[in-house]
Design goal:
This protein is α+β, with helices and mostly antiparallel strands and 374 residues long. The chain contains ten helices and 15 strands. A hairpin with a 2-residue loop joins β3 and β4 (85-93). α2 (39-46) crosses α3. The radius of gyration is 24 Å and the shape is flat. The two termini are 34 Å apart.
């Protein structure tokens, strides 16, 4: 997703009644996915110094703004009113546009975390289990889709120096961390304890960088199978080759078998992979392929990579075909330059689109689980 220009419609405020009908409509409505709690309850649990305003935009439409302004941040969430209905129109964080694609889920998750903090003395911290029992709850259990091998056996097969620890989360929940190494990179996989019988995957970090937990159980299981099927040839002296096959590799960006890849097609021509495995400088924490896959897969957009001699074209189309973009890269001496970009048929500034894509990547990653510290 290129950064959407979601401009709040700043306007003329009409008669400011403390509790207008439109404000009442928003505050005591529910997000569709979360009918058990009102929007007002969610907002009150998350934010301080909340102010609501009912305004009419210069476009003639009616809006309700939820504004919270504290020394640490200013956040505005804007709702568009249509008769007796509404939708979220835009958001700003510290005067910058904020991605609203998953805003309802983000707000509800924050609400839940804050409620957990309030009730932490009555929640998981009171589970009458020892640290080893918490750890065994995860280690001796199974991923739901792979009940032929325990989680502990999967981890010790594919990782080195595996250590388990139980931690008390600052959010009031109990967590179990699997700490290990893979080719000298530190891997932490975190599980949140739900009750005495169940848990869920919460987050994964590799060398301190958070990664998506989407499909992580299947990826770990596939790595486990590769290790189990590996039978070293005693007559083969190519030890380095065997070790490279045997150990999982999480190095960014050149490995196609690690957990951090995003739908990388192993059959793509080398020239395409040169682009995918390069960077939008000065940003070296994510490859071009990782950025594009992460951003547009979340939107359900169709992304096609095509090579033409020393050029690579990336064609990106939204599901409804109303948004289209073309990126053109030039390959020279195994390095790559973005030399042309267009959006909906109009030429786009190269540096702007690189920064927009990287910013959108960072925003999208905010939706991933964040590791809870002690």
């Amino acid at each position: 997703m290129l950064k959407k220009i979601l401009t709040l419609i700043f306007i003329l405020c009409l008669n400011s009644f403390a509790q207008s009908y439109n404000i009442y409509l928003i505050k005591y409505s529910n997000f569709d996915k979360y009918p058990n709690v009102t929007i007002n309850e969610i907002i009150d649990a998350i934010f301080d110094n909340v102010k609501w305003e009912d305004i009419e935009g210069i476009d003639g439409n009616k809006y309700v703004n939820m504004i919270t302004d504290t020394p640490s941040q200013k956040f505005i969430l804007q709702f568009r009113i249509i008769n007796n209905d509404w939708y979220i129109n835009a958001a700003e964080l510290n005067d910058e546009p904020y991605n609203i694609s998953n805003i309802e889920e983000e707000l509800y998750n924050l609400y839940q975390k804050n409620m957990n903090k309030k009730n932490q003395n009555n929640n998981t911290q009171n589970l009458n289990l020892t640290d080893s029992q918490f750890i065994n709850l995860v280690k001796d259990n199974y991923f739901s889709s792979h009940r032929d091998v325990k989680i502990g056996d999967i981890m010790k097969t594919i990782f080195d120096n595996v250590k388990w620890e139980k931690i008390d989360g600052v959010d009031g929940n109990d967590y179990v961390n699997m700490n290990a190494y893979s080719d000298n990179e530190k891997v932490i996989i975190q599980f949140r304890i739900i009750d005495m019988y169940s848990w869920e995957l919460n987050a994964i970090e590799i060398d301190g960088v958070a990664y998506s937990i989407d499909n992580i159980d299947n990826k770990l299981y596939e790595l486990y199978k590769k290790h189990n099927n590996y039978k070293p040839n005693q007559n083969n002296n190519n030890e380095n080759q065997n070790n490279n096959y045997y150990k999982p590799n999480y190095h960014k960006p050149n490995n196609n078998a690690g957990l951090n890849n995003n739908n990388l097609n192993n059959n793509q021509d080398t020239i395409v992979n040169i682009v995918r495995n390069n960077y939008f400088l000065p940003h070296r924490d994510a490859t071009i392929g990782e950025i594009i896959d992460t951003v547009f897969s979340k939107l359900g957009y169709d992304v096609k990579w095509e090579d033409d001699n020393n050029y690579v074209f990336v064609n990106i189309v939204s599901a409804n075909n109303k948004w289209k973009s073309v990126l053109k890269f030039k390959i020279q001496n195994n390095s790559t330059d973005l030399i042309y970009a267009e959006v909906n048929g109009e030429k786009y500034n190269i540096e702007t689109i690189k920064n927009d894509l990287y910013s959108s990547y960072i925003e999208t990653k905010k939706q991933y689980g964040q590791l809870i510290k002690d």
